[in-house]
Amino acid sequence: MEISISGFVNEKTPESGYLSLHPIDISQLVKTDLIIIPSISDDKGYEHLVTNNTKLIRWMKEQYKYGAEIASICTGAFLLAATGLLDGKTCSTHWNAENDFRRMFPGIDLHIDKLITARQGIYTNGGSYSFLNLILFLVEKYFDRQTTIFCSKIFQIDLDRTSQSPFFIFQPQKNHGDEMIDKAQTYLEKNLSEKISFEQVASELAISRRNFDRRFIKATGNTPVEYLQRLKVEVAKSALEKGRKSIFEIMIEVGYSDDKAFREVFRRITGLSPTDYRSKFNQEAVLA
User: Fold this and answer.
1) Which 3 state secondary structure label does DSSP give 123?
2) Cα angle vertex 88, ends 83, 92, to 5°?
């Protein structure tokens, strides 16, 4: 494979100044087979980054039209999404960028739990070092399974990893500007151990349950039930990571009385059972 770093600038020097990149002129690449978009960031926000790279976005869209495949690493999904090629498709990106991505591209089916998505020659992956799994995925596609296994052994990459859910940190959306929903969020956060009736919450806020649900989803991206479950699981995760409390004690503290229900919700959100999560992240378990 002939691999190149390409772009619309002759030189790129990071702020640290420790190295510089000298990309080849991307406009000279008439035809390519695979485009890999790296993780991206912009101090002015993702909107500014997309606006500032319209020429590159048009070029990628044109290359896909003529047969190139495109893979995005981590937040590189923002540039890929801006091409329109992800509209109506499933994709992933770093869990920390979920709220910005959903706000900017509501027509894309974002699955923040997925490590890799693949459809019609377009590939996306989750955050940070999960790009290693995407690279192995591409190695298998362009070469074979034997080569992929060899690479995984040389670089010690776990081939079985399929989800970034265990690493997800739930960050409640609070910059939506809906004061009523903000009050509801604060109430939920302060009453996690209590049995909560959303009918009563809506009544206290002088709004119908239907309109409450609609505004809650619009503001946070979650239904009230999903939001409450994620809050409870986040608190449970923290307790499992730091303390010696039993899973039963933690379950009661976050407002569950049904052991089966708690474990099912925990596994659905994290991809792990509470026991497996503790084994993976609790310091004492790691050192044992």
Assistant:
1) strand
2) 75
**For residues 53 and 128, what is the distance between their CA atoms, to the nearest angstrom?**
22
Strand 34-37: give its sheet, edge to edge. Answer: 34-37, 69-72, 122-125, 116-119
List the one residue out of 207, 277, 205 whose CA is nearest residue 242: 277
**For residue 285, how many other CB atoms are within 10 A of its CB?**
14
**Whole-prediction pTM value?**
0.72
Alpha helices (runs of H) in the chain, residue ranges in sequence order: 46-51, 54-65, 77-82, 98-104, 131-142, 145-155, 179-190, 198-204, 209-220, 224-242, 247-253, 259-270, 274-281, 283-287
- HEC per residue, 132-198: HHHHHHHHHHHCCHHHHHHHHHHHCCCCCCCECHHHCCCCCCCCCCCHHHHHHHHHHHHCCCCCCCH
Q: Residue 38 gets which letter from DSSP?
A: P
Q: What is the pLDDT along the chain (288 residues), one digit of tens a residue?
A: 899 999 888 888 877 778 888 899 988 888 899 999 999 888 889 999 999 999 999 999 999 999 999 999 999 999 999 999 999 899 999 988 998 999 999 999 999 888 899 989 999 999 878 899 999 999 999 998 899 999 999 999 888 777 777 777 787 878 788 999 999 999 999 999 888 999 999 999 999 999 999 999 988 888 999 999 999 999 999 999 887 889 999 999 999 999 999 999 999 999 899 999 998 888 665 444
- Contact between 150 and 159 (Cβ < 8 Å): no
CB contact at 8 A, 94 and 75? yes
